[in-house]
Amino acid sequence: MVKICCIGAGYVGGPTMAMIAFKCPDIEVVVVDISVARINAWNSDRLPIFEPGLEDVVKGCRGRNLFFSYDVEKHVAAADIVFVSVNTPTKTRGLGAGKAADLTYWESAARMIADVSKSDKIVVEKSTVPVKTAEAIEKILTHNNKGINFQILSNPEFLAEGTAIEDLAKPDRVLIGGRETPEGQKAIEALKAVYAHWVPEENIITMNLWSAELSKLAANAILAQRISSINAMSALCEATGADVSEVAYAVGKDSRIGPKFLNASVGFGGSCFQKDILNLVYICECNGLTEVANYWKQVVQINDYQKSRFVKRVVSSMFNTVSGKKIAILGFAFKKDTGDTRETAAIDVCHGLLGDNAKISIYDPQVTADQIMRDLAMNKFDWDHPQHLQPMSPTAAKKVDVVWDAYEATKNAHGVCILTEWDEFKKLDYKKVYDGMQKPAFIFDGRNVINVEELRKIGFIVYSVGKPLDPWVKDLPAAPPS
Ligand SMILES: NC(=O)c1ccc[n+]([C@@H]2O[C@H](COP(=O)([O-])OP(=O)(O)OC[C@H]3O[C@@H](n4cnc5c(N)ncnc54)[C@H](O)[C@@H]3O)[C@@H](O)[C@H]2O)c1
Fold first, then answer.
1. Is 404:363 a contact under the CB 8 Å cutoff?
2. What average pLDDT does range 54-74 have in this prediction?
3. Residue among 5, 12, 277, 279 whose CB has most ligand 1 atoms within 8 A, to mutate
4. I need a labelling partner for 171 at 20 to 30 A (CA). Which of 195, 252, 454, 479 fits?
5. What is the pLDDT of residues 257-310, one digit of tens each?
6. H/E segment holding residue 242
7. pLDDT tens across 170-188, in order?
């Protein structure tokens, strides 16, 4: 029986390995992690991450050929194929701080693999890593190898949170990069055979290691670029009276462009986009490609601009101050159908409002109060470390309240900000929300989920990203010349 071990039981390691075990009853899959709490949660009825459909897949094979363990070394030693799906945070100090990937966790995983291995292994990069990481990993493994043969493959993951199970069951493509040597090709075939249990052969693409590593960064950069492009248009729409949804619809009808990833919003979030682009920028700079680096940097800069533009709209609309005012935040996750808050736009918006002394009341159907408080107390980039190693600043926001109901959050509020596109926010009884609020009642829709006209009829002053401005908002430009 082929034995797979995956190091890292996170958003990627957990669901991907569960899918492999589910589809391949003839393969034993063990997911290991240094976080005991995470492993215990994977073995319990309350999985550590929320993902539609995940529970059924896990329950379908856990205890059969899918296991979760914190005995990392034992299972790595026993495996034929070792996936590495550990954190790859952005460096916060030293060379490349604020841009380059911090490979501390990757390196320590590689050293551990070298230490405990007694048989040949295929080591698979599942984490998103800088181009040429495989070469570094290869060096660590071969310099400690005691005659063992390691083959390194790159198999970047393209799942999107919120639709991970669907994406894993029917991937657009599976990408496998490997060495162009006979041993490298043999390793590629072995991994291909795993995916071939359920993925059609024509969707399994093989290439060299560097192309595979770069393809992942390129895909995320281009997806994020589409969002920044439409968000840049949203600012122009507000200035000219155009409607960004109409513009996006017209543009997306062009079959060369297509409709996906053209929703204007308060800004993209998630653990990957910003991190991967900054990483790409750093690689470009290291290769002397200043113009290329600056081009991609702009995608992140527009995203930051969009978040701060939103905060300025809120503050300027509400008589240029939110000091002492209650603002309800509806949605904290970086997108709907996930409880993940990594790099969510909500963090920057909340910091912006707290900076102006607002009192905020947050409701999200999937994010715990504990997580929100951690997020608001954490320094930039510190979220991407194993949880028990995350440094906390002691200044946990005192003016923050987390509640379990949208009506509770909006009660007596002066303004409401919608920051995640949860379906339930489309169906709220907005008359009830309005009646419970201070007047004038403001609503700022950062995800374009509400019906602007209906809300204006109720009496709200409405701002919706990229939509023609409410006369009230129009008189108060959000971005005064600096
Ligand atoms: N989240 C996504 O949607 C997504 C999609 C594609 C790729 N990726 C990439 O996949 C990688 C993992 O992302 P994630 O979202 O699963 O992260 P995560 O933080 O959810 O999980 C990483 C896990 O690795 C564990 N870990 C760290 N070092 C370890 C070690 N030495 N031994 C054992 N366990 C260790 C941590 O405790 C943590 O549980 C990252 O490189 C990320 O960029 C993420």
1. yes
2. 97
3. 12
4. 252
5. 999 999 999 999 999 999 999 999 999 999 999 999 999 999 999 999 999 999
6. none
7. 999 999 999 999 999 999 9
